[in-house]
Specification:
The chain is an alpha+beta fold and 146 residues long. It is built from 3 helices and 7 strands; from the N terminus they run βααββββββα. Strand 4 and strand 5 form a beta hairpin.
Length: 146
């Protein structure tokens, strides 16, 4: 089992952070490894929505689909994939924090096959990547770009 969580304080109101981060069309801008996000179901985002992502990880291209299983606007978003070598659940949470928002990003899942052996190495690499992703999100939102 791999379970990695990280968080960041963003000096932007929660509605703006959650609105930007929960829009799958923005994922390639702030996730360093995601090349594209494509709707498999009709927008807008809701429970049951499905999206296909193409990403790079450990020098490989990974194509996978997420289904959104929980959505509490401006509080929590949960998406899950079951196919591939590394079924994963990704959770975003947002809460007010002083002059902005505390965003938490959590990825957890149960690797299969070779990925199960590599899971010991994957957690620290995932944590570094997730921290970089949240730092990029903070940079985008605090600079007022979107």
């Amino acid at each position: 089992m791999v379970d990695v969580q990280t968080e960041i304080h963003i000096r932007v109101p929660r509605a703006d952070v959650a609105g930007y981060a929960s829009n799958p069309d923005n994922a390639p801008q702030w996730y360093q490894n995601i090349d594209s996000a494509r709707w498999l179901s009709e927008p807008p985002l809701r429970i049951g929505s499905q999206l296909a992502f193409s990403a790079r990880f450990l020098g490989r291209t990974l194509d996978y689909s997420y289904e959104f299983t929980e959505l509490v606007p401006q509080e929590k978003l949960v998406m899950r994939t079951s196919q591939g070598p590394f079924p994963m659940q990704t959770t975003y949470t947002w809460s007010d924090a002083g002059d902005g928002t505390l965003m938490t990003l959590r990825n957890n899942g149960e690797p299969r096959g070779f990925s199960a052996v590599a899971s010991v190495l994957m957690a620290p690499m995932m944590r570094r990547a997730m921290r970089k992703d949240l730092a990029k999100l903070k940079e985008i939102l605090e600079s007022g770009l979107p």
